[in-house]
Design goal:
Layout: E1 2-6, E2 15-19, H1 33-57, H2 65-73, H3 78-88, H4 94-103, H5 114-134, H6 137-149, H7 151-157, H8 163-183, H9 186-200, H10 206-220, H11 225-231, H12 233-263, H13 268-280, H14 292-316, H15 326-347, H16 364-376, H17 380-404, H18 410-420, E3 426-430, H19 443-447, H20 450-454, E4 456-459, H21 464-473, E5 477-483, E6 503-511, E7 516-524
Parallel strand pairs: 3-4, 3-5
Antiparallel strand pairs: 1-2, 5-7, 6-7
Helix pairs in contact: 1-5, 1-6, 2-4, 5-6, 5-7, 5-8, 6-16, 6-17, 7-17, 8-9, 8-10, 9-11, 9-12, 10-15, 14-17, 15-16
Length: 525
């Protein structure tokens, strides 16, 4: 555990090395083996709790962008998959490569989530280790707790796309950069360079974090300029290798940025919304719904208590319990702001926007560490109260997410239909919310058994063909639809008017979630 302050008289790394907990020449007592062992046990327990939350979330059916990822990797050879990613996708290939490997393990579509789940769980001890090295054991443990119960990070740990992978690789690269600057070992510099390359090849938003790391290191450690610059060879080489396919992906990204601009243009409301969603909420629903007034209130009160205690201690001249060196604080500030700066910079371009909460995910660990630094720097009573309130507020959001804000329950709907379906029956799925315009048709199609899948019709309006087909076979028609929050009725819930007199509803089921999934059975009169 180390923190640093520049010193003109220093040698070696060019900086004076101080034990963790040091600030302005005040040195904390060494940490005992007993406390270190207890810290490791605590981090392990927090990691297990975070893993359980993520595994509960993994019960959701794959949905939306996950359907596209599945279509690029399932049943494809490695070369075919890479070609599809290069010409049709807008993100680099690492996440797809790992999803392709995971897909080879079995037939379940949810296998493509394995890399994200592993990365999401690994992020917890990574943040703990980074916090311990920058500030101390309390800082690392509190930060790990915040990451473990963050509803935003729990959601993306169960998202097959590479967001969780990217944030874990960025955090690991930051940890290795800090260690390399402390020890100066070539192995650490090489490992940092490799992880930085992997982060960049997982998602282009990693560029903001990697650039922030490099600029901070050059400013805080000028005598290590050569090692810092040489370590950039990894991400630069990765970008050069991927360069032949980069232009096509940039074009694909441009189309995406135009679509985002239509729903989330650059204004104060959208900027504040994505910041709030990434810190305490969920990427696809309002903060009023998740974590709700109680959850948000607990988080704000907890932070306020620690902030007031900080001011009081400063007035009384009390030193922080676990101070963090100023260069370390600047590192976290840079890493927390760099992704937002990238999103704002792109969104300044006419007709383009990056203002989606998911594009700030790489900032969340640094933000958690900054909050943990505030909470851990006060006395034990303040720490327990403030950290307890913040953690409880975030945990309330995660409970709401896992209980009420799941992805569309296409798997449950498919199972229910399969238990009732008979030859001659037809199945209709509304495509607009389930990836129906993707290569595989719909998320429902991935879950249905062979017979119902063969009778599936994907429709966004009308349904005459399916009803007509069922009349020829004397069968029934099953419809799966989606009801949006605050909507009075499902999007698609009854036979077309021309057929309404010949069919009546004989069965219905619904499943709660981010959008309510509803299924109906219509039989001939």
């Amino acid at each position: 555990m180390w923190s640093w302050q520049p010193s003109p008289a220093s040698s070696g790394l060019g900086l004076t090395q101080l034990p963790a907990g040091s600030l302005m020449g005040v040195t904390a007592q060494p940490v005992s083996r007993w406390r270190t062992r207890n810290w490791r046990v605590s981090v392990t327990a927090v990691t297990l709790a975070g893993a359980i939350a993520r595994l509960v979330g993994d019960r959701d059916s794959i949905a939306w962008d996950e359907v596209y990822l599945y279509s690029w990797v399932h049943g494809k050879g490695f070369g075919q998959m890479m070609h599809l990613v290069a010409v049709k996708e807008k993100t680099p290939p690492l996440g797809f490569v790992l999803a392709w490997i995971s897909d080879q393990l079995g037939s379940s579509p949810s296998l493509i989530r394995i890399p994200s789940l592993i990365a999401g769980v690994a992020l917890i001890p990574l943040v703990a280790a980074l916090g311990r090295r920058l500030g101390g054991q309390r800082t690392g443990l509190v930060a790990a707790l915040l990451v473990a119960v963050s509803p935003f990070l729990v959601f993306y740990s169960v998202e097959a796309r590479s967001y969780s992978l990217t944030v874990a690789l960025c955090t690991a690269s930051t940890l290795l950069l800090v260690r390399a600057l402390k020890d100066g070992r070539r192995a650490d510099w090489a490992a940092y360079s490799l992880l930085a390359a992997l982060a960049l090849m997982s998602h282009y938003t990693a560029f903001a974090v990697l650039a922030g790391q490099a600029l901070w290191a050059l400013a805080a450690f000028p005598r290590n300029r050569k090692s810092i610059l040489l370590s950039q060879a990894g991400p630069v080489l990765a970008a050069v290798i991927w360069l032949p396919w980069l232009k096509q992906q940039v074009d694909n990204s441009s189309d995406e940025l135009h679509r985002i601009a239509a729903i989330s243009p650059l204004d104060f409301g959208n900027v504040s919304a994505i910041i709030g969603h990434s810190l305490v909420g969920h990427p696809l629903t309002s903060i009023a719904r998740l974590p709700g007034q109680w959850g948000l209130g607990l988080v704000l009160v907890g932070v306020a208590i620690a902030a007031v205690a900080l001011v009081v201690d400063r007035v009384r001249g009390r030193a922080p319990r676990e101070p963090m060196g100023r260069p370390n604080i600047w590192l976290l500030v840079v890493l927390a702001l760099a992704p937002l700066a990238l999103a704002l910079g792109v969104s300044l371009q006419p007709g383009q926007s990056m203002l989606l909460a998911r594009n700030l995910i790489t900032a969340v660990p640094a933000a958690a560490l900054l909050v943990a630094t505030l909470l851990a720097s006060r006395g034990k009573a303040v720490l327990l109260i403030s950290a307890g309130l913040v953690t409880t507020g975030l945990a309330l959001g995660t409970v709401i997410e896992l209980r009420d804000v799941q992805r569309p329950a296409t798997g449950a709907a498919a199972d229910a239909i399969a238990s009732r379906w008979k030859p001659g029956d037809r199945v209709i799925d509304l495509c607009c919310l389930s990836g129906g315009d993707g290569p595989l048709g719909t998320a429902l199609a991935l879950q249905l058994t062979k017979g119902p899948r063969a009778s599936l019709t994907v429709l966004s309006r009308g349904g005459d063909s399916a009803y007509a087909a069922s009349l020829k076979t004397n069968g029934r028609v099953f419809i799966v639809g989606y009801q949006l929050p605050r909507a009075s009725a499902p999007i698609f819930y009854a036979p077309p008017k021309a057929w309404a007199t010949r069919f009546h509803r004989t069965w219905a089921r619904e499943w709660p979630g981010l959008v309510k999934t509803v299924a109906w059975e219509f039989s001939q009169r």
